[in-house]
């Protein structure tokens, strides 16, 4: 089964996306960053496409000021066994230095990356969506994990990769 691994800084909506794709509340979601403790695996189904979805949270327990130094190792660990990386950013927050750091490490890996601009419901995510082109992963998918928007675009992006 292909493994689609969700990667992104804390609080961008990774676990909400995981739950959306699994359709069950397997991953804990909370308003506070740092709730998910481990990698979680779920059987995902997206418009007939079946894959294993992996929610990552390796760096969420830690002091954010010490994150950048360990980001490369964390990203590499998360990418182990990955068929595709789903790189999630928060379109409402715009790009942050941590997003850029994760993006640099993803560029060093050979795993294909699909960029997902989450929290893009309404128009509140428009500027973050445009900013995210600077990450160099092509067109971002405007997405809302909470509202289930962008699922067909995600399907289109994953189809040739898995
Ligand atoms: P994680 O730390 O990346 O796993 O993020 P979570 O999935 O725990 O979500 C963090 C916060 O963002 C929670 O309050 C979610 O309800 C919220 N969130 C997740 N997806 C969306 C979305 O599509 N739109 C909005 N507005 N909020 C979202
Ligand atoms: Mg989480």
Automatic annotation (TrEMBL):
Entry binding sites for GTP 1: 8-15, 55-59, 118-121
Record domain EngA-type G: where: 2-162
Assembly mode: Associates with the 50S ribosomal subunit.
Function: GTPase that plays an essential role in the late steps of ribosome biogenesis.
Annotated family: Belongs to the TRAFAC class TrmE-Era-EngA-EngB-Septin-like GTPase superfamily. EngA (Der) GTPase family.
Name of the protein in its database record: GTPase Der
